[in-house]
Write a structure and sequence with these properties.
There is one protein chain. Helix 4 packs parallel to helix 8 and helix 6 runs antiparallel to helix 7. The chain is of the alpha+beta class. The chain contains 11 helices and 10 strands. Strands 1-2-3-5-4 form a 5-stranded antiparallel beta sheet, sandwiched between helices. It has a 3-stranded antiparallel beta sheet with strand order 6-8-9, covered by helices on one side. The chain has 2 domains: 100 residues, Phosphorylase Kinase, domain 1 (2-Layer Sandwich), CATH 3.30.200.20; 197 residues, Alpha-Beta Complex (Aminoglycoside 3'-phosphotransferase, Chain: A, domain 2). A hairpin with a 2-residue loop joins strand 4 and strand 5.
Length: 345
């Protein structure tokens, strides 16, 4: 359930998409030793946040050159570079997938072209995640969360405590319910989660901060690379797993969480419940974005999504975010326990 409420930002005055040949020329300016023998478009020309091309060097290595098309994309690219510099070779060696490396940059039209190493793999879609790939994704996320938090703090990147995550969730719930558009059952569910102190007792970890299915590259059922490090920080590990809650078919979500827990252990008993809540609060964020933009279309879409949440989540015990309860014992089971206790004493 992904509904990002980010603004588009200012668009740079580019009349048309830059061709892959123009981008190849920029790449040679950015990386002096790069001897280009081939170039091909990457992504949808003229659409999206970047103009991009894949460049082939004479040595057979591949590179990607990207030029942002908006202020938001430029800010994201800058943050990505800061994060990539924080990921030292020692850190990268602890990850079971490839991370791109920065090669060079050159100014162009008030912004800059960035060249980085091309990471191999097929872009992942939610519908394309099977049990094997779900397992690999869970292991990949767990490896990120096992990294030392000092790599983030030493780079001056954000670090948030559990209390910060709790306060942010409470504020979001309050703002969403103040619209009077949140169904009563969903409001009660969110408010109970906000009041559940144990749900927010966790140890913050290194997180990517902006994961979704499109973040991953894969080959033969294994994650080969991870795109986008602009939101690297120390924060709630559930924030990297909330998107996976929506993988509801054929036990794929279970595969992601089970693999994650096998690697990380039982350090966060309420992780999946918190991830479920955070996935639902993305809808609240979408609702607020619609009200702020005075967009009836977005607000109506958010209301429909909340209605589906009521139908799907509130009747599914597997998606509960309430505290786990102990099983109710029958009278004969209670008597047997008391009898065993008396014999022991």
């Amino acid at each position: 359930m992904a509904c990002r409420a980010a603004g588009a930002g200012q668009t740079y005055p580019v009349a048309m998409a830059r061709s892959h040949l123009t981008l190849a020329a920029l790449a040679t300016s950015a990386v002096a030793e790069l001897d280009v023998v081939g170039a091909a478009p990457f992504g949808s020309a003229g659409r999206g946040d970047f103009d991009a091309a894949v460049i082939t060097g004479r040595d057979g290595r591949h590179w990607i050159v990207r030029v942002p098309r908006s202020e938001r994309a430029e800010q994201q690219q800058s943050a990505d570079l800061v994060a990539l510099r924080a990921l030292s070779q020692g850190v990268r060696a602890r990850l079971p997938f490839a991370v791109t490396t920065f090669a060079g940059q050159t100014p162009v039209d008030g912004t800059r072209a960035i060249v980085s190493e091309f990471v191999y793999g097929t872009p992942v879609t939610g519908a394309g995640i099977d049990l094997a790939l779900g397992t690999s994704i869970g292991e990949a996320i767990a490896a990120i969360h096992a990294l030392p938090t000092s790599l983030v703090t030493d780079a001056g990147l954000p670090a948030y405590a559990a209390a910060d995550a709790h306060r942010a969730a409470l504020a979001l719930i309050d703002r969403a319910t103040a619209t009077s558009l949140v169904p009563a059952a969903l409001q009660s569910r969110w408010e109970q989660a906000g009041e559940d102190a144990e749900l927010w007792q966790f140890t913050p970890t290194v997180v990517n901060g902006d994961l979704g299915s499109a973040s991953f590259l894969a080959h033969s059922g294994d994650v080969t690379g991870l795109l986008g490090w602009h939101a690297l920080r120390v924060a709630d590990p559930a924030s990297d797993l909330s998107w996976a809650v929506g993988l509801r078919r054929d036990g794929v979500a279970d595969a992601v969480f089970d693999a994650y827990m096998r690697v990380r252990g039982g350090v966060d008993r309420r992780l999946r419940q918190r991830a479920t809540l955070l996935s639902e609060l993305e809808v609240a964020r979408w609702l607020l974005h619609g009200t702020e933009q005075r967009s009836t279309e977005i607000v109506d879409d958010a209301v429909r999504m909340m209605s589906r949440l009521v139908d799907e989540r509130l009747s599914d015990t597997a998606e509960s975010i309430s505290p786990p309860t102990l099983p109710v014992l029958a009278v004969d089971e209670v008597e047997a326990l008391l009898d065993r206790a008396e014999r022991v004493s």
